[in-house]
Amino acid sequence: MTKTRLSLITAILLSFGSFSNAQTVSYYSFAQTQETYTALSNPTNIVTAGAASGTGFLDENVYTLDNVIPFSFPFNGTNFSSVKIHVNGFLSFGTETTSSSDPIGSGYSYSGVISPLAADLSSFYNINGNSSSIDYAVVGTAPNREFVVQWSHFRPYASSQNSSAYHDWNFQARLHENGSIRYVYSMTSVGNPSAGNAKVGLRGTSSSDYINRTAAGNSTSNWNNSTPGTNSSNGIATNYNYLPSQGLTFTWIPPSACIIPTAQPSSLNLTNNGIIINGNFTASSPAADRYLIVRNLNGATPNAPVNGTVYSTGENTSLNSYVAYYGPNTTFENNYNHGIRGNNQYTYTVYSVNSNCTNGPVYNVQNPLTGTITNCPITVNGITTSNITANSFTVNWPTSENGNASPMNTVIEVATDSNFTNQITGSPFTLSASSTSQNITGVLPNTQYFIRGKNVSTQCQSSYSSTANLYTACVPTTTLNENFDTVTGNNLPNCWSKILTSNNGSIPTISVTTTDTFSSPNNISFYGNGATMTNAATKAILVSPQLTNLNAGTHRLRIKARRTSADIKLQIVALTGNTASAAVDVIETIPLTTTYQEYTVYLTSYTGSGNYLGIRRVDGSTYSYMYIDDVIWEPTPSCSELSVVNVNSVSYNGANISWANAGNQQPANGYEYIVTTTNTPPADTETFTNLASGTNSINLSSLANGTYYFWIRRICSSAEKKSLEIGNIYNNSYHSGTLERRIFNIHISSRLDKRSKSI
């Protein structure tokens, strides 16, 4: 047989106003007893299964019984005499005719639900002589009559209907004219039929107003020891091993009529922590089950609450108050989320309430408990800065959400450290409460400043705001000496920037990193990150602070660099700005090696308009790195080092050494050199050999087999022989002290044509 399932309609529950009727099903109490299941005698039959399928098969059927209850049955604050009977194991009130297997948790518009065993139930026909039926009867005499609905021989739809394995469920819903409700069970099974889940409890006009039972269907959690449900769709598993004991009875008792509390609470204590207000009081005696606390600003008078109305937290026009709390506790807190603002005087009024009763809640409005408190100001929030120059900036903040209960000032602090121990001259700045900005002058360029604020009244003060910070503007400089070791995280040093563009969606990165440094702890990595590094549209440029002398012809750049993959090049460029739109002039393109080398670039002939130095990565594979460290922009020395020192050829007893000068500028007094067998720089007292200016190579001879160190330096004058430590940017020459050195091995052999060299 094919069965079409009914779709549940999700209810959209709208809350109108700030109060609602308080007669709720959730106030019903529950009791469990063990009684005897007694089938109805001579009941009125509603329906009996007439076939195993098709016509006569019972499934999803709903039967409307108008005016069959001979007394007005009170349920959830309303009296009913008509009812709908659902094959799926429950009763409903109201006009809704749709059945459900979860009427307590569903969104259907029932006026009420009484659910002894709601599930996807179906009938069986002539199984061991039994067929399903639904009957009703009225038993007892007034004022103790019961309207009883009885489901006989039903089963879960998913369970079979054959004589070897089946559920046989019998249960009653008994509605007493005093409003109490009993569910009585006689449920058995044959064989090992499949299990399901039953929804057992009561529901009001929506799924948020419910009381139900739940159990997992095992030895410790079953029908006989169920617990209160915490969700409207909770249910009891119908495992055939753990069905209810015969005659198990669940009783639901409506709350008694409400009585107005006879006493109010006492001893209201109000304290504040900043703008937060905490309150506590002594419970009324006799104790009420709830308390309504309303709050008014600056002594406004609340309107008395109305019986039968539950008031939600928030502004309430009918009470002329803010509802600060409604519940059983004798302590409460009001903070920003409860409408509290700073530097205000608030009056709190506390009423005793009885609510777990019929037609509740009811309020004692005579002489409620009251108390007044003035809280501290709210802090300064949202500090920003603007108009940043090298020597000044402006601090801004929005108007604080404070009242005027006490005189108040705004205090702004500015310091060069985040602990605010080194505050600038004039800090803290004490301003009127209406101020929203402060101009700060006399500060240093290229310096980080920290800013925080607070509001201070004559009574107390707010907490400090979150700390803002900024760097003052950089001023153009004439020199640089940056090893990137003073920064933390991935932030570039102040006044440095980067230009990153790509010909595709992947953008290269330039980052401060601790990976593969030359001088610890930091260096700079240039990572391809999926960009095509050979494309001209791809830019990965680290930009220096602004320089005043890039085109003066007096300075040079020294930088240490290495690569991780072939073809990566270091390109030194001059830029007219530090954004992607800046004009770029290429000064020099330098092939790199996989080990750190120092490279020197002279800008003696640059005459362009650039005022920023750019260190750019070009070429190389997409997912590879270039690293740089120790960037120095300095005056070109008057006696500079050699730019190239090469070992050109090595013979069995000597070698040819050549060199080149930076800018091909020959020293006025030539060179001096020495060859040693150790790599210790020679002292000035050693014997050097002089060479004339214009000489750029020498043939060494008469050397025995071994390792030799070649040291050479320029003689610019009798007093200027020194050269800087690093000069050659194109080979593996080494430099020590004031001399250039070169290492080579000459191996003596009996055959002159067998020779080797190492560098």
Notable characteristics:
eight-stranded antiparallel beta sheet; 759 residues; disordered C terminus; mainly beta; 0% helix; disordered N terminus
How would you sum up this structure, described in words?
The protein is an all-beta fold. The protein contains no helices and 54 strands. A hairpin with a 4-residue loop joins strand 24 and strand 25. The protein is elongated. Mean pLDDT is 89; it is low at 1-22 and 722-759.
Quick structural overview:
The protein is mainly β. It has no helices and 54 strands.
Give the SSE layout.
Elements: E1 19-21, E2 29-34, E3 44-48, E4 62-65, E5 73-75, E6 78-80, E7 83-86, E8 90-93, E9 112-118, E10 121-123, E11 133-139, E12 146-156, E13 166-176, E14 181-190, E15 197-203, E16 210-214, E17 227-228, E18 236-237, E19 248-253, E20 266-273, E21 276-282, E22 290-297, E23 309-311, E24 314-316, E25 321-327, E26 331-334, E27 345-354, E28 362-374, E29 384-386, E30 392-396, E31 408-415, E32 429-432, E33 437-441, E34 448-457, E35 468-471, E36 480-482, E37 497-501, E38 509-513, E39 523-527, E40 539-543, E41 555-563, E42 569-575, E43 584-591, E44 597-602, E45 612-618, E46 625-635, E47 642-650, E48 655-661, E49 671-676, E50 689-691, E51 697-700, E52 706-714, E53 734-736, E54 739-746
Antiparallel strand pairs: 1-23, 2-19, 3-11, 4-7, 5-6, 7-8, 8-9, 9-15, 10-12, 11-12, 12-13, 13-14, 14-19, 15-16, 15-18, 16-17, 20-21, 21-26, 22-25, 22-27, 24-25, 27-28, 29-30, 30-33, 31-32, 31-34, 34-35, 36-46, 37-40, 38-39, 39-46, 40-45, 41-44, 41-46, 42-43, 42-45, 47-48, 48-51, 49-50, 49-52, ...
